[in-house]
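Technical appendix A lists one of the benchmark inputs used to test multi-chain prediction within the project. The record comprises two sequence entries:
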Amino acid sequence: MTHTLSEAESKSLLAPFGVPFLDERLVDTADAAADAAAAIGGPVVAKLCGEAIAHKTERGLVRLSLQGAAEARRAAEELLAAARPEDGPVQVLVAPMVRATRELIVGLSVDPQFGPTVVLGVGGILAEAVADVVVRLVPVTEVDAEEMIDELRTQALLGPFRGEPAVDRRALVAVLLALSDAAERVPGLVSADLNPLMVVDGEPVAVDALVELADAPGAA
Amino acid sequence: MPRPEHFQALFDPRGVVVAGASSHPGKFGFVALHNILANGYEGEVFATNREGVDVLGRPTLASIDEVPDGAADLVFVCTPAGANPELLRQAAAKGVKAAFIASAGYGEAGEEGRRLQAELVALADELDLLVVGPNGQGLISTPSSLCAQIVAPYPPRGRIGVASQSGNFVSSFMNLSRHSGVGVSRAVSVGNAAQVGVIDALEYFADDPETTVGLIYVEGLPDGRRFFERLREVTARLPVVVLKGGATSSGARAAASHTGSLATDDKVFDGMCRQAGAVRAATVAEAFDAAAALATQPAPPGPRVAVVTTVGGWGVLTADAIAGSSLELLALPDDLRDSLDRLLPPRWSRNNPIDLAGGETKDTIPAVLEAVVGHEQVDAVILLGVGIQANQGRMEREGPFYPDHGLERIVGYHDRQDRRYVTVAAELSERYAKPVLVATELAVGDPDNAAVAGVRDAGRYCFASADRAVVALDHAWRHERWRQRRGLGSRRPIAP
């Protein structure tokens, strides 16, 4: 059996391998959310976060474009109130609101025949229909990672796009290598999803993360 | 596990025993013996038959016990599964090192068959015997003129090593080999792959001086991870073309019912091939095209392609195909344009595709080819529009006016010219160590056309269309780029 980690736990597990995340704060109360919004500055996002919460958007547990401390406080109050008993312990994640026209998906999954694999795909709401996905087996080398990026069919998305600079390929290579590295070093790592990996001013940044671990032997 | 000397006994045996030879022409035991005897194998051939009847006018032995010690190191087994353990023990005692098991009734045939197959492998390991199959169609090895298989055809000698989980795909590739003249070194159908599979054969090919390209068909892989690691080791030494069945979910279901093996998600398989440096082909024709290009053309040093065409139309479509590949249509360098200006009338395209616009006199095409192939910025050339004059010549030769009215002389001239163009193309390709691919649908439409026959006689492969030549060249370049990026040096040179 497996279990999923909360968004915050997923991010703290992957960050040391070099996955780029936003400057985010995890808080327990609405007041702390207001303080976090003030410290981050600019518009923020608030999300309800807990181990058992996987589909935040579907449940309306993501609040976007919050302007200033007051709006952040109110959003955090509503999110905490929306928690259900089965969600278990919950917190509120406050993060800078970023805008990006380009979204990628990067993930890690264990193929029944070939073992751990790193996946790179074009993200966004059309991701499944477009199905522009490239896979490599772990361990992924730097050259392998560069070739993955080259093999995406939608190359136009990686160049300069709608006034934004080209995707920083070295930074994207680093994300792919980070997941490969994590697959080799984290015992029981079954899957990881960085969805979306947004391209902000050309730089990839993981806005969400979901890690699935195998239960320890003997665990219920 | 089997060692190289076992595969050597399989592909270059001193002598062969056909166990279960039959006097009935409809039986595998008849066909196997017939095919070995009919294709020039020079080693000694023995046949066993329980009743001791003559087969194909030759006496048979009642048992393998009667074969002289050490006279044969390969046994081709057509006997029922139940008889095989005893037979293999006798064969091993006679010095046999390899057995090809054509017999069915093993892993493909339910619980009891799977048990027999497991016993077969255990016995082979105990006897230090290579067992290929069971339920396979056989093998061929052109350096030994050995056609030990229960199907046709027997291909010409060449450099492509074929290994397949399906015997019918071996036949497919060999049909294309026979038609095109681009030959095969070894081919083996691994059947149920009880003891050895496609990857074991490939590993032998990787160190086989007779083989310069591997061509495989696979459906399921019991240990995908290990297959990947071994494939990557092989491709560092030998380019490998992979055709896989079960790429889609409905194909995957057909594969499961065929070999009882699990199919895998196609994107993962595709990524695995690319990571391992293998060429993944989507169809039989694409797979053979790629293998033929790798076997007969030097490795492209880079992606820049020049397209040379005697007349318009074809070049445009070829440029489109190149745009959709990893190749680049070379922007014509000024010095090359100047050289061509001196060789051609002003109506030529003055760009790439280099369209001669019918502006050739007797020596124009060889001179243009020399200038283009020899230019330092050109990494590969695709030559189109050959064979046109010889095609018209055929109509004239077969028409009611031949040989009068000057037809005999002009037809002969066109045949010689078309043959000369493709011969020069092959010579320049060799001299400058760059691919020069010739494409014309006459490869299919009229294999006797002087241009097509000339390509074949030069040891090259005539592509059936320009877009197919582009796809094959794209595969060759991707493989070379895979090598370059990993500091592996160029692939092994093509051999005559």
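The two ends of chain B are 33 Å apart (CA to CA). Residues 13 and 73 of chain B are 6 Å apart (CA to CA). Comparable benchmark entries are summarised in Table A2.
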